[in-house]
Amino acid sequence: MEHEERSQRLVRRIEAFSDLVMGFSVGLLGLTLVVPTHAAVLLLHPLWLVSYFVTFGLIAFLWMRHQRLFSMYFIPLPACVVANFVFLSMLGLFVYFVQVFAHVRGEFDQAIAVIGYAGSYAVAMLALGFMYAVGTRERWKQLAPQDRFIGFSNASRALIVGTVLLLACIVSPLVFFEFKLIATYTVATAVIVGALVSRVWVNYQRPRIIGAAHAGA
């Protein structure tokens, strides 16, 4: 009983620390918005405003997945604790590369910033997927059928999208490293492909997971 209480206390502290880091990352994101000399510049060059909302949306998405992870699936094994710290460190890099993109000039430098931005997000997704996979596997018998599927689904989507996106980040500088737009399109294509593949895989596995769960009940 004492061991279980210590584990629960550790989980609560890790979750609180994670919320603090994610909130701090959103605060840093606001610092990427440079105040222009003339307000009209915001209308003529809205790229930074777009990048702000896209990045904020991605962080919010990760926070929602992270919150669900800790509500039911997270297990404070050493590997999962390390994966959570990797996840949080990648959020910091994620916001950092937005700042890099804002301050560098030239297609080559901006392509590197885009790849760093996507790569840090990919590693964060892989860490998140790993934690979901471990938690779902360890608590498989304790979870309700639908909760088993949700855990499997979140693990699969994060791992597949993260893997495809990371591979795109590795291939892009080797093939298209001088062309910012091509590198950006490669990253965007990787996200779409990863999302579609994960969706097909999850839908294919759904009857087996939920059906098997009901059969064993």
Sheet of most strands: none
Radius of gyration: 19 Å
Low-confidence stretches: 213-217
Q: What share of the residues does DSSP label as strand, in percent?
A: under 5%
Spatial shape: globular
Number of helices: 7
Could you estimate the helical fraction of the residues in percent?
A: over 70%
Terminal Cα span: 28 Å
Q: Please, how many domains? A: 1
Q: Return the structural class.
A: mainly alpha
What's the SSE pattern?
HHHHHHH
What oligomeric state is this?
single chain
Tell me, rounded to a whole number, the average pLDDT.
84
List how many beta strands DSSP finds: 0
Strand-helix topology:
Layout (H helix, E strand, L loop, with lengths): L1 H29 L9 H5 L2 H27 L4 H26 L3 H32 L6 H32 L3 H37 L1
Summarize the structure in words.
The chain has 217 residues and is an all-alpha fold. It has one domain (2-216). Helices cover 87% and strands 0% of the residues. It contains 7 helices and no strands. Helix 1 packs antiparallel against helix 3, helix 1 runs parallel beside helix 4 and helix 5 (107-138) runs antiparallel to helix 6 (145-176).
Give a short synopsis of this structure:
By secondary structure, the chain is an all-alpha fold.
Relevant terms:
single chain; 217 residues; mainly alpha
